[in-house]
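W.,

You were right to be curious about this one. When I first looked at the sequence I had no strong expectations either way, so I just let the prediction run and decided to look at it fresh. Below is the sequence, 471 residues in total, followed by the output.
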Amino acid sequence: MGLELRQQLKLSQQLVMTPQLQQAIKLLQLSRLELLDTVQQELMENPFLEEGVETEAQEQVEAPAEVETTPASEQELMRSADWEDYLGDFSSTSKQAHAREVDAEETLSFEARISGKHSLEGHLEWQLRLSRLNEKQVEIGLAVINNLDSAGYLQASDEELAALSDATPEEVEAVVKQIQLFDPVGVAARTPSECLLVQLEAYGIDDPVLEEIVREHLEDLEKKRYKPLCRKFRISMEELKEYLDRLTELDPMPGASFGSEEPIYVSPDVYVYKYGDDFVILLNEEGLPRLELNSDYMNALETRPSKEKEYFQDKMRSAVWLMKSLYQRQRTLYKVTESVVRYQREFFEHGVTHLKPLILKDVAEDIGMHESTVSRITTSKYVATPHGIFELKFFFNSALGLDDGSQVGSESVKALIKKMIADENPKKPLSDEKIAEMLKDKLQVNIARRTVAKYRSALNIASSSKRKQVF
């Protein structure tokens, strides 16, 4: 069979995501802070975009309602488009100019108001450099410090550290003993038992019974097996409690206070206020620039040579599409929040225990959008409610069936489980089976013990045996 080249025409349809559509989808799923960074980046890169300056007259005028634009008014829209035009009916109330005094702290530079956070490694290395160890021991100490975990425990053996620092295991062990006496005391220990024993010795606590408990019976203390300990050491429960009180003064995780995790600050995208018998939704516009097209570039567009004109038109289309995408994002966020408030009105009235089952499909059908759009707009978005700040996805939860055929949200059940455990008797904590029975009586919901255990674990609550307090 011979091979040959042949030209052939084929007509087909395919879905192509244009750069503009990709940008609109990306803007949907950005958090508020990420959106601010994106807008600022576009302002720097696109000469057709500029940040409008609000005048007092503009601040006192309500934003006009959204209107259909005709081809004849398209050019005017591009010239005068700004945030107030975009927000339309879902705009917040008109802004009022408030004169405020400049705080003394605001006159400082940004760097002057920030203090650096010390790391465990840096804190230990600082002490290592100030110690009387020789150069070889300092090298071994650096290897030890670089092999500590976030809790301050040593994760390498003496042999491994010896290979890293070209030393003997005996030399490594001597340096480790020195570092264990640094601040925080007990750092560079291999086990919790070793960590606590180092602290007992450093603080001058010489008690054979306490040392034996730390060395051999920490697991018994964790599982609250107190009576066998009393029989072994021939002490009473009151005396054992005194030993436990002394142990609680020690720190089994000396490096935890130097944790590297930074706090996450949340800026709400939407505010929901109760006004009379209804709820008012306000989009958080603080920090969002009022985008508009640069009039100088718009006026010079027609007089430019063909090559420059093509570049100008491309940037102009990019600027207009960005503003339209931002408008669409705000409009979608408002509609989704409005639908959530409508479905979860009892939550906004009474709190978490009245949260109803809700899925993305319900909101998507309510506002006439696709589920993927609702999923994107609820990602990393936060709502400030009368009961606190919640992620928008928090309002979507699965359902549990009640005996009367109705349903209750899983988050409501979790909140009720948390409240039951908070109100329990510490000496007689509620078992998962008992909590299931109480839920049956209170909500008329058939819930299995393993489901209660799953919800309890999701709330980071220990089992009843570990919650029990003997003393």
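Here's what jumped out at me. Residues 56-74, 77-113 have pLDDT under 50 and may be disordered. And, maybe more interesting for your project: The chain has three domains: 18-56+73-91+262-392, 120-258, 398-471.

Coffee later to discuss?

I.
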